[in-house]
Structures are given as C-alpha cells and as structure tokens.
Amino acid sequence: MTLKKKIAISFSIAFSVLFGIAMLIIYYASVDFRTDQFRRRLEDKLDYISHYIANAPSFDPESYKTYFQDIEDGLFYEDVIILNKDKKLVFSTIKDKTIIWDQAIVNRLENEKRIFYKQDQYEIMGKYYLVDKQAYYLLVKAQDYSGNEKLDHLAIVLTILFLLSTMLVWIFSYNLILRLLNPLDKLKKDITQINASKLTNPVKYTGNTDEIAVLTLAFNTMLKRLSNAFESQKEFNSSASHELRTPLARISFQLENLRHQYQLDERVGHVLDNISKETQHLSEVTNSLMLLSKFDSATLQATYQEERIDEIIFTAYDKVAKTFPNLQLNFSIKSIAEPKLTLFCSAQLVEIAFTNLFKNAALYSYNPEVEVVIQESTTWLKIMVTSHGPSLSPNDQKRIFDAFSRGENASEITGSGLGLRIVKRIMDSQQASIEYKADTEHSAHIFVLNFPKPAIEAPQL
Q: Tell me: the pLDDT tens digits for 338-367?
C-alpha cells in the first residue's frame, strides 16, 4: 500500500470514528432530553390528578372527563390508576380490562414515593400523595408518540449525515493528500530514471523549505558523492586493465617462447607449465573482476539483439574445449516441433555465462561431460545444464552464486570463485533467472536457466 493511501485511510478512519462518536453523543443526549421532558409531563399530569382528588366529591369518570377536558397534555394512549391507602383500586380510566397491579411496584412506590420506569412501548410514572390527610398512590401510563417519532427522524438524519460526511471526507482527503504528495511522486519518477550513466544529473524540485525539498537536496548530495566514487572506480578499472592485462599477456608470450625455443629439463618444463597456468588464472581473475564492474553500466543494453541460443552454446563449448579437450557435450531439444531458439540478448555476455558453466563442469565433474537440454515455449526458453560430480553441502548450495564462494569439493582445484557469480549477474542483466538443483541420488548438479522470449510484433499493414 502506498504512503498516500495509508495517510488518506488513516485520516478518514480517524474522522469517521470521531464524527460517529459525536453523532452518537447527539443522539443519546436527545434520548435523555426526551425522557426527562416526558417524565415532567407525566409528573405534571399526576399533580393535576391530585388537585382533582382534592376537589372532586367522588371518583366519577364523567366528572374526571369534565375536569380534564380543557387540559391539553398531549399524552397518547393515556391510562390513569388511583389506589387508596390500602392499595385498593378506587379509580381507573382503563375500560373492559381486568386490572392486575404488580404488588412489588406498589411497595416500591410506597418506599420511594416516586418512581419512573418503562414497560414495552409505554412509560409509567408513579407518585405518592397526601390529599386531605388521605394517602393515595397515583400511576399514569402513556406513550410519547411525538417524541419517539422525532428521535427516529433524528436517527435517520444523523445516519445519512454520517454516511455522506464520511464519503465526502474520504474523497476529499485522498485528493488533497494526492495533490500535496504529488511532488513526492515526481521525485520518485526522477530517481527511478537515474542509472550509472546519469549520476551527474541532479534531481530538480521547485519547493523551497518543505520536507521534500530537504529530501531532494540530501539525495542530490548523495548522488554527487556516488558519481565521484563511480568515476574513481571507472578510472581504476581503466588503469587496472592497462597495467595488469598487458604484463600478463607478455609473461604468457615469453613462457611460450621459452618452452619452444629451448630444450628444457622435464622438471623445468613442469615448473613453466605451472607458471603458465597461474598466469592464465590471474588473467581470468582480472577479466572477471572487470566484467563484474561493467554490469553497472546501462550501455551494455546497446549490444542486445536477436540471437540463436544454440549457436551461442556451441561457440562457448568450442572455446572451453580448447582448454579442456576431453570435455564432452550432449546437446538435445525436447518437446518442440519447430524450434526457433531465438533470444533478444547480448551474445557476448550469454556466451561468457555458458563458458563459465562448461568450465565448472570440466573442473568439478567425475567425468568431463556436460549435458544441455533446451525446452521452448511461446513466452520463455528453459535450458538445463547438467554435470555429475561430488555433492555440495547444504550451506555451499545456498551460497553457490556468491562472489569468491568455493565449495568443499573445490579445495584442491585452482579457481577464484567468481565464475558462477558472473553467470548470475549476466542472467540478471538479461532479465532472466538461474537456479541450482542438486540430484543427490545421481550425484548430479543441475543449473536451470530461464530466458524470456522476445515479444512478437504485429505485422505491418
């Protein structure tokens, strides 16, 4: 998830939670306000009834109606019950119903003198009165239809307001953050376009004092230091190429002349052979180190073109066979009716990769033999290079592509430990992959190379 989305989502969630809490506070405050108001209305009703008891000579329904006909209390489904001091019913507005009162409620009213509670959709208020020194228990039951209807309407309004506000805030916050962080996207785009050939091009930003401007300034400072270090490295590589390769070539040439022009003792010839091998090994190490450093340059891609992989493999084998004439190559193509075997790559680099794999097979195999199997599809081309030799430990298998890494099976064989590392770097430069698999049952070392096929262009009309 991008930083913009994280900030927008975090801000929107925080707003939604706070706004939702505010809506709940408003709603429940309105609920409490309605309850208090309705309780006061019920209590006022009970006070009017106590005046009625004091003024009416008898509890008569007609006189009750007459007394309260001019009072607009707005109570819906109102029922009134009057109990005497003996808790006997003396008056009720309930008709055609058997009235049964919970004795616990009456006892509670006797102790607390005033009670208020809810029962289903009704709200009930009870109060104890002394009228002309006579005790009465008055209860009134009613529905606050208007108040509850207003609360339902308030809940709908608050819900709609919450949903609309949340949606607008989410959209607004994302677009606002998108606009505020747009310079960061531009900075990322400029940074991704930098490569080894563009280290001297600083990243530009029009801001003055914001954090992105500070970050851009710091990045340009780092870029300048990297450019200086890279130039120093290129200069060193150029000097090393001239100062190391030329003397090594002269030494090899003079050793060959010495061997052919003079009749040398067998022991002296053996020593010269060893010196020649060590000189050749030193030359290969120098070339390998220089090749690794060149992979950081984007100019290598200028050499890429469509090549046939089988021709590259045979060329690499011919070069290795000059040094290891006993190396045998078993080449096969499987499951392909009409193979094309073409790749968009640098033939020189891929040839070096197979040369190193073949050298590896010649040096570390029981028998100087390597098997190459090609499988092709419309999107990729897979090559398996197999040789047989001493098994590697699990630790050696994990670091087989590391620089200067040599397995326990190579302790008595001259080498630099750079061959497979160079193969890995070459495969990465071709947007390809290489994987090592060990077949312990058959003492086999299998390298699986996967190359992407070039895209097929649409025919021109």
A: 778 888 888 888 888 898 899 888 888 888
> Are 322 and 416 found together in one domain?
yes
How far apart CA 341 and CA 347 sit, in angstroms, is: 13
**Pair type for strands 380-388 and 122-131:** unpaired
The DSSP bridge partners found for residue 122 are: 119
- The residue among 243, 268, 294 that closes a domain is 294
Structure tokens at 18: 């706070």
Which tokens in the block code for residue 431? 């947007």
CA 99 to chain CA mean position, Å: 68
- Span 304-318, pLDDT tens digits: 788 889 999 999 999
The CATH number linked to 38 is 3.30.450.20
Bridge partners of 83, per DSSP, are 89, 137
Q: For the chain, give the number of residues.
A: 461
Cα–Cα distance measured from residue 120 to residue 140, given in angstroms and rounded to the nearest whole number: 15
| Residue 377 · residue 441 · CB < 8 Å | no
Between CA 284 and CA 83 the distance in angstroms is 115
Residue 289 burial (CB count, 10 A):
16
- Provide the residue range defining the domain that includes 331: 304-452
Tokens of 274: 């060893």
What's phi and psi for 65, nearest 5 deg?
A: -65, -40
Number of domains in the chain: 3
Identify the helix (H) or strand (E) that includes residue 40.
helix 3-55
pLDDT in tens, 177-207: 888 777 777 777 777 777 655 666 777 766 6
Query: Which residue is listed with tokens 């009057």?
Result: 82
Specify whether the CB–CB gap between 91 and 82 falls below 8 A: yes
